[in-house]
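Summary of Year 1 activities. Much of the first year was spent building the evaluation harness for sequence design. The harness presents a backbone, in tokenized form, and records the residue chosen at every position. We chose the following record to illustrate the format because it has been used consistently in internal testing since the harness was completed.
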């Protein structure tokens, strides 16, 4: 397997790179531009795990923040709300999760198991 860039330079893939390439193809839409992988934000969680521990891969700070927040939403700083209520811990976590999703332009639904 190989890749030819815009300047017609040829890059041959080693076994590790072939595995990564296969995983990327399974994930779907992405683009390689000037040695940089460009993908939808919704793939951040999967990409972070795919490339975890690989020394030859580096991420932008923005991507690192997104992957961190998706992986550990409980650490996302809770913003003040206009809701005047005493919330339980799990409700605060849920609101924090929704705020984190909103911050990155994602949508989400929060539901409970009370059958409401």
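For this record, the design step produced the sequence shown next.
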């Amino acid at each position: 397997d190989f890749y030819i860039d815009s300047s017609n330079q040829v890059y041959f893939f080693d076994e590790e790179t072939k595995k990564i390439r296969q995983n990327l193809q399974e994930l779907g839409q992405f683009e390689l531009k000037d040695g940089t992988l460009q993908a939808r934000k919704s793939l951040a969680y999967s990409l972070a795990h795919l490339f975890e521990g690989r020394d030859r891969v580096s991420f932008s700070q923005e991507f690192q923040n997104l992957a961190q927040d998706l992986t550990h939403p409980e650490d996302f700083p809770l913003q003040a709300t206009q809701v005047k209520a005493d919330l339980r811990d799990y409700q605060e976590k849920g609101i924090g999760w929704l705020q984190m999703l909103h911050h990155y332009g994602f949508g989400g639904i929060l539901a409970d198991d009370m059958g409401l």
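The two ends are 54 Å apart (CA to CA). Quantitative recovery figures across the full test set are reported in Table 2.
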